Amino acid sequence: MRTTLLAVGRIRAPFAAADAHYRKLLARHQPLDVVEVRDPADLTRRLPRDAHAVALDRGGRQLDSIGWSRWLAERRLAARHLCLLIGGPEGMPPEARAGAAEQISLGPQTMAHQLARIVVLEQLFRAAKILAGERYHC
User: Fold this and answer.
1) Can you give the pTM of this predicted structure?
2) What CATH number is associated with residue 41?
């Protein structure tokens, strides 16, 4: 399954090191392409047509770690290109939210969009480890 993280803005310190760390850990379990776009309008323009788009948004469905692993297993079975969308400092643009097949929340709190990127990478890594039957704190 092809997976893309489509994010507004470039990753910068202090988040860049964590981004690189989780992308390296995730690479052996769940290959991931990261595409950074300049502005929120680019999210919808750069969204692959064949992708199952998922907007990371406070109003979405909340998942625990086991829920993330079950969700990832479902996405793998569907065998469609998975594209996760992360908005910029102003959040998720309404047109990107409306165009997504589903929305997932990282929690009710507001967080920096670069931190949200790290949280998504960590949750994908954790879910992939759970699916692989490897030990990982849940």
Assistant:
1) 0.93
2) 3.40.1280.10
